[in-house]
Amino acid sequence: MASDEQKRWLLLHVIATILALNMILFYEVNADPQVPCYFIFGDSLVDNGNNNRIASLARANYPPYGVDFPDGPTGRFSNGKTVVDTVAELLGFDDYIPAYANVGGSEVLNGVNYASAAAGIRDETGQQLGARISFGGQVNNYKNTVSQVVDILGDEDSAANHLRQCIYSIGLGSNDYLNNYFMPNYYQTSSQYTPQEYASVLIEQYSGLIRDLYGYGARKLVLNGVGQIGCSPNALAQNSQDGTTCVQKINSANQIFNNMLRSLVDSLNRDLPDAKFIYINNYGIFQDIIDSPQSYGFTVTNAGCCGVGKNNGQITCLPGQTPCPNRDEHLFWDAFHPSEAGNVIVGRRSYSAESPSDAYPMDIRQLAQL
Question: Is the pLDDT confidence value at 238 over 70?
Fold first, then answer.
């Protein structure tokens, strides 16, 4: 049997271990984020409420959206978290980045989400769905935020020093194909441009707006490639002969755009040496999941949990519709948008690359450390 001295030593050791663990947890929970702020530009993949109060069909502020999100239906086009929610967690933020429509006061110092469902690089993109905030509109909203930051911090130099440390995530282009180029009944772009020409036009406008962000303080920028639109349940239902084979003409056009976007990263890094631009290969990440869904826990990759079908038009989840129970096994939540399970994988690999092709020339984790 242990002596009294041994028992006392063991008790002291246990107490010391518990105190040490508590200190570790305290510092992990209360540690500052890796960057002071996170600014987000994009479309419905990352919209978290900017479309809620505008006259748009592209809205998700009703059940069953948000069924697995703590705050319920917020405007996120997911059953739960989006990709940028996951990245915000990994960057160490203790809350998700608020929507521009809802943010106020000193909150802007932590970052703002400007994303708008149906938005594109081109101003007319998504107009058949009603109001939306194009990339140009989102950049203008950011300029308003910069003015607020200057007012809060007291002068332009202090604001510039704050903003240069922030992460900027830009992810547009999907709707310029989904709700423009491949919608010939509404738009003329497919008759005006070849896929190569159209990608060039998009990249030129995209580049100009990104340079505007640079002119207003952005120095750490993440350019997100377009995912495999041709593999979405909507594209499969509308254009796939067997309902499972991805639509190659759509994916090929997306790849042209992505290749140009990756090249743009090189150009911007060369032209703007005091800034750092990176490219996230969403197309390749989705390819990995589609090629080997079981290894990621997915059993269904060609159908969402609600609102999927040939007759569904532009409406995805119907209000009050009961979604499937096995949501974590579905790559897609609705006809267009990934499930939380899918978003978490993309967010995790964007933050910390699991394959050399996930991010170029570095991942978000490395960008944050610069």
Answer: yes
